[in-house]
Specification:
Blueprint: H1 2-20, E1 29-33, E2 40-45, E3 53-59, E4 75-78, E5 87-93, E6 104-110, E7 122-124, E8 136-140, E9 149-154, E10 159-165, E11 172-179, E12 190-193, E13 200-204, E14 209-216, E15 221-224, E16 228-229, H2 231-236, E17 239-245, E18 251-257, E19 270-276, E20 288-289, E21 295-297, E22 315-318, E23 326-333, E24 338-345, E25 351-353, E26 366-367, E27 373-381, E28 390-397, E29 401-407, E30 413-415, E31 421-422, E32 433-436
Length: 441
């Protein structure tokens, strides 16, 4: 009987996804940055529900920074104006030595509609460089026809560079740059762009500070708002790393690298929510506001919230839709090898934990199946609506792997039988992931 209940929920979700995304447009592909010396991107076919096929490897022509197990978005996909247009896949080459092609960006065109096999890569060097760019974080603006921007942060310069994306061939044209250094000297670890409301690029520095940059037409150039120290950092030493933004553009959600030197002496999972100032009042339009009421978990259980036995939380991902008036917040806890689901209220930004009962066979929290991997890092929903239906997780290690989990209609997860899937092309480098077609923001 339990099997029938589980099958019913999964079948219903799958049928809904098929109805919303017919077979002609929802072929699914998973792309992961290998981040190895001879760098490349690994591609899995996720078109068959519950399994991954591959990977196939495509070289960027540049170098990666081996052994850099940090939370970065090193692979991003820029969508075009219609399903008939090609798609652009951008991959960072965070080189560990000075000089091109270290620290560049590789641009791959993808076929229209189906995604799939990338075309030949073209490399784009930073406009200015003063040393090895061992960290290169990327973000894209997905708002539509007049927002064809790619943002790239280069660690050697402490700059965010703005590129215009040519729709026909994925070529990048440099438009300008702006200084981006944390209050404690940190470099950009992660960036994200709002999909609605105020046009803002939100940045986390990994040193306790966060910042919003107003996006200005016509070239997507940036105006800085004041950088701030997050409440989680101030109160219990949590360092915001990966940033994601809710679809309505109101809330920036951060996965923290929690401190072990506070309270319990453990790196208990911690996330933070900062509001994005929209208009009026004494605030700066597009700036971030962090308060004692929007830090959750951590070694001091801030806001009376706990994420159970999860340790580490630097990588997070929000569900495509706010089902039940809340976004599912998927947390990758590298120090305990598990995935946890929390919930972000789309109106208030409040985070709650363990809110719903799971479908039979699914759990919250889910301990990932063992393999050759060492740490689970970047994660991404596979389908572009609802809870995301499936979750792919990059697993960093001597031989890296990719996990695949099914998601029920409450955000609970269950790892599929054949998971994890070995990626022979990445050793000590698999950190970042993106998927085509992704959620729209």
């Amino acid at each position: 009987m339990k099997h029938l209940v589980k099958l019913s929920a999964v079948t219903w979700l799958f049928a809904l996804t098929v109805a919303l995304f017919p077979a002609s447009v929802w072929g699914q592909y998973v792309y992961l940055s290998d981040n190895v010396t001879t760098n490349g991107v690994s591609m899995y076919d996720a078109g068959t529900y519950g399994t991954l096929t591959g990977p196939t490897n495509y070289l960027t022509g540049g170098t990666g920074s081996v052994g850099s197990a940090v939370a970065l978005q090193e692979v991003v996909i820029k969508y075009k104006n219609s399903l008939a247009d090609p798609v652009c896949l951008f991959v960072a080459d965070p080189g560990s030595s000075f000089g091109y092609p270290n620290g560049d960006i590789a641009a791959f065109p993808l076929p229209a509609i189906y995604g799939g096999i990338p075309g030949p890569a073209t490399q784009y060097a930073p406009f200015s460089t003063s040393g090895p760019n061992t960290l290169v974080a990327l973000a894209v603006d997905r708002r539509g026809p007049t927002h064809n921007y790619l943002y790239a942060s280069f660690s050697a310069e402490g700059m965010i560079e703005v590129f215009d994306v040519t729709l026909s061939n994925c070529a990048l044209t440099y438009k300008g740059e702006i200084a981006a250094v944390g209050l404690n000297g940190g470099v950009v670890k992660s960036m994200a762009v709002t999909h609605a409301g105020k046009e803002v690029l939100v940045v986390s520095y990994g040193d306790g500070s966060i910042q919003g940059f107003e996006i200005n037409p016509p070239f997507g150039l940036l105006t800085a708002t004041p950088a701030i120290l997050s409440w989680g950092y101030t109160f219990q030493g949590g360092e915001p790393k990966f940033v994601d933004i809710t679809e309505n553009g109101l809330w920036a959600v951060f996965g923290d690298r929690p401190s072990a030197s506070y309270c319990t002496g453990t790196r208990s999972a911690e996330v933070e929510v900062a509001s994005i100032w929209q208009a009026g009042g004494s605030g700066v339009w597009g700036s971030l506001i962090s308060t004692p009421f929007n830090d959750y978990g951590g070694p001091c259980s801030d806001n009376a919230t706990s994420f159970g036995v999860a340790l580490g939380s630097a990588n997070i991902w929000l569900s495509p839709d706010a089902t039940h008036n809340e976004y599912d917040l998927y947390i990758s806890s590298a120090l305990s090898g598990m995935v946890t689901t929390a919930y972000v209220n789309q109106t208030s930004g409040v985070v709650t934990t363990f809110l719903h009962a799971c479908t039979a066979g699914h759990t919250n929290q889910t301990t990932l199946a063992g393999g050759s991997w060492s740490y689970n890092l970047g994660l991404h929903t596979v389908y572009p609506k609802g809870t995301g239906l499936e979750l792919a997780v990059a697993e960093y290690g001597g031989v890296s792997e990719t996990a695949l989990l099914n998601i029920d209609n409450w955000g609970c997860t269950e790892e599929v039988v054949l998971s994890p899937y070995t990626d022979p092309y990445s050793s000590n480098g698999l950190v970042s992931i993106d998927i085509f077609p992704s959620r729209p923001y």
